[in-house]
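User: Okay, second chain of the day. Same drill as before: sequence in, C-alpha cells out.
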Amino acid sequence: MTTAPIVSELVPASPERADLALTPIEAERVSHYVAGALAASTRRAYGAALRSFRAWCAETGRQPCPADPTAVAAFLVAEADAGKNVSSLSQRLAAIRWEHLRRGFATPTTHPGVLDTMAGIRRSLGVAPKRKAAATVDRVAALVAHVDRATLKGKRDAALLLFGFASAMRRSELVALDLDHIENTERGLLVTVARGKTDQEGRGHQRAIPFGRREELCPVQALRTWLDAAGIEDGRVFRSVNRHGHIGKALRPASVADVVKHYAKAAGLDPADFGGHSLRAGFVTSAAEHGAKTDRIMDHTGHQSATMVRVYTRRSDAFADHAGEGLL
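Assistant: Same drill. C-alpha cells below.
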C-alpha cells in the first residue's frame, strides 16, 4: 500500500487554497508519518481485505468507496457463504471503515443494516476462535528433543523455541528483536521489547529471562550458543539459515510458526494444532500451573487485560475450587 494516495487525500491540492498544497519535501515527511499510524502487519491485513472488497465490487458492479451500506452487507454475506470466519469478516469491516475515514467519507460500516447483518452472521457461525494449542513446558521439551543442535539451523531453532517460550513474545516481536535489545546479567537476560501489538507508540517493555534449571532447556544458554555460532554481533537476532548453513535475512513472523509446526510433527503431535502463538500461550499456561499470579504473568507477557490471560489459565485451574466438587 503506497503512501502517496494517503497524502493527497489527507491534504488535497486546491486551486482556490494554494496554501494547502504540500511541497515535495513536506509530502515525503507526511507520507512517512502517516504510514506509521498503523502497524505494518495491520496495513498488510487491511490491504488484503480491501483488495478482496474491491474485487467483489468490480465483479458485482458496485462502487467500493464511498460504498453503499447495502453493498457492504451483501459483501459480508458473500464472504460468509464462501467460508470466511467471523474474525476475517470483522477485519474486512475494519479495513472498509478505515478506508472511508481516511478518504473523508462517512463510513457505511455503522449503518444498522450492516450491523444487523454482521450480528446475524455471528449468531449463525459462532464467534469462538479456534485457538492454537499451548506449547507448555513438557511440550517444548518434547519439541527441543528433536532438534539437531550440531547444525547451525538446529542451534537457531533450539534458541527460537526456548527463548520464544521463556520470553512469551509474540512471533512479530521475536523476529523484530535486535541484539542491542538484550542485556546480559548474572541472573540471565534483560530483554527490551521495543514495540509490540499493545505498544504501537514504542514505549518499550522489559522482560527478565532467568537461567533454566536444566542445561538442555536453558533459554539463556540456547540463545548465546546460537549468537556465537552465527557470529551475530548486531542487528536481528533470529535469521534464516539455508541448507548450506549460510545465514540470510531476518525471519518472517510466519517462519516462527513453521519452526514450531516442524518440531511438533517430529514429536508426534498434530502440527495443525500448533502455531507461532503456541509458545506465548504455553508460557502463560505453564506459569499458571506452576502457581504464578495473574498480575505477575501480565508483568512478563505485557498483556494489558487479565481477560486474555485467563483464556489460557483456564486449563490449569478448571478443576480448582470446582462448584461441583463432591456433589456426586
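The CA atoms of residues 123 and 316 lie 29 Å apart.

User: Thanks, on to the next one.
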